[in-house]
Specification:
Length: 423
């Protein structure tokens, strides 16, 4: 079987239904067989947009997509999209074309070591020079993209590799099992004891909860503990707007007054699937204060990266939440904040009912909230002051309905990310 045909069949078996790309000489070996596939393909006008669209597709649906482009400048245009996906933990398979193997390292037309260039900003990169290894590489790439902290994987394909013939039996190809770590029961018991001893405990729901599909379970756990819930920017919409325990966001730029107030009154923070990065924390000394932190994250390197946690638990968010729920018993906070929250949300809400001319941004977002609040609209946003206004003022009532470029703050992200949902 021709390698490109094998790749397309592997993509189909891995569940890929949509691809975003731009054809070109260096990748046309693969496109020949994409044309015969059931995979829907959307052509863009800039390679960076292909990756943003594939990333946006996952953010909204929870299903992976593929980004494709040709060699040289096409591949280097992928870099910003790869970085954007990587810092926001978005799994994407990014396939780039390449010069033939005999020309690698000899500076031929449109030849660049994209695998090396993307190493710092991708979860994994490959330049496949042995055609027979294609099935192994793609199988491993899908597992790596999804396992642990998700992220983009780059696969660079020399043109003669795309057109080579290999022995391949599709029936023997099986997607790899993705390992999902369960929490240490002893640490879960310690977390429960810390929560019981706290007087003003708070939950932070991070983007990892959304990635794990555990939003409802997380809210239920907060109800069990009677804990206010602050969402990070990447988890915006993961708890209903009017839920009694919703305490908004905290931090700088996209934070909200209510989130900052509730956070500063807390003495213990249960952070699930979050990373404590600068936009959320602001001044670390003020953020840490005298409060204790329980940090749950699927990726061990994220725990203690920003500051030492009082208790770190390496686990999939959904499994950790289930374990906490099982051990919670009658653990319930006596903090009166949950009773105060509905009133505080109104008192500390940003003013938006301006009637000045020309219309100001606060009023614009108020009108957007008023109109789209009755519809299941999905929003994207790039960066700059518009993202700050959006983070503070935009009302999102469901998970996977707000798709920002969170860690990268990438201008030009929003339109291709939105494009991924129009088909």
């Amino acid at each position: 079987m021709i390698v490109s045909e094998a790749i397309v069949k592997i993509l189909e078996k891995e569940g890929i239904t949509d691809a975003f790309g731009i054809p070109g000489a260096g990748i046309n070996g693969l496109y020949k067989y994409m044309a015969k596939s059931k995979i829907r393909h959307y052509t863009h006008r800039h390679e960076e947009c292909c990756v943003h669209a594939a990333g946006g597709y996952f953010r909204a649906s929870g299903n992976m997509a593929v980004a494709m482009c040709t060699s040289g400048p096409g591949a280097t245009n992928f870099v910003t999209g790869i970085y954007t996906c990587n810092i926001d933990s978005i799994p994407v398979i990014a396939i780039t074309g390449q010069a033939v193997r005999s020309q690698l390292g000899k500076d031929p037309f449109q030849c660049v070591d994209i695998a090396k260039i993307c190493e710092p900003v991708a979860k994994k990169t490959y330049c496949v020079t042995e055609p027979e290894k294609i099935p192994q590489v793609f199988s491993e790439a899908f597992r790596i993209a999804k396992e642990g902290k998700p992220g983009p994987v780059v696969i660079d394909l020399p043109l003669d590799v795309q057109n080579a013939e290999i022995e391949f039996d599709l029936n023997s190809y099986q997607p790899q099992t993705v390992f999902s770590p369960a929490p240490d029961p002893t640490l879960i018991s310690q977390a429960i004891e810390m929560i019981r001893e706290a007087k003003t405990p708070l939950m932070i729901m991070g983007g990892g909860v959304v990635l794990a599909g555990a939003e409802k379970e997380c809210v239920k756990l907060a109800e069990t503990f009677n804990m206010p819930v602050i969402t990070t920017y990447m988890a915006k919409g993961a708890i209903p707007l009017e839920h009694p325990l919703n305490a908004g966001h905290c931090g700088i730029q996209v934070g909200q007054p209510i989130g900052n107030k509730v956070f500063l009154e807390s003495d213990l923070v249960l952070g699930i699937g979050c990373r404590f990065t600068d936009r959320h924390t602001g001044d670390i000394k003020v953020y840490r204060g005298n409060r204790k932190f329980i940090h749950i994250n699927i990726e061990s390197s994220e725990i203690n990266k920003i500051f030492p946690a009082d208790l770190g638990i390496i686990a999939d968010a959904k499994k950790a939440i289930a374990a906490l729920q099982e051990k919670a018993g009658t653990t319930k906070s006596d903090w009166d904040m949950p009773q105060r929250l509905p009133k505080l949300r109104k008192e500390l809400a940003r003013k938006t009912d301006y009637d000045c001319k020309p219309i100001n941004p606060h009023r614009a977002f108020a009108e957007l909230n008023k109109y789209f609040g009755e519809h299941e609209a999905i929003f994207t946003t790039g960066c700059g002051i518009t993202q700050i206004w959006s983070g503070q003022l935009q009302e999102i009532d469901q998970p996977r309905h707000y798709l920002p470029s969170g860690g990268a703050g990438c201008l030009g992200y929003d339109i291709p990310a939105a494009f991924a949902h129009v088909r």
